[in-house]
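Q: What structure does this chain adopt?
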Amino acid sequence: MAVNTAAQRGIWLAIILLVSVCAACVAAALFYVTGAGVHLTLGVGGGAFVATATLGLAAYRFVMERSDA
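A:
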């Protein structure tokens, strides 16, 4: 039985992106509550999303993919 099927990759992608959206919302909310401007709040939210998604996908690739070397 395959460990890394296409369906499992899709589920993991959905989980990683959902966590990234949650992290972006929390970061943006924290900046908004502290009185930051709208442009800074949106920038921080977008940056948090990109950073979390990139880190999550890199971690998934590192953990799940095996090298045949």
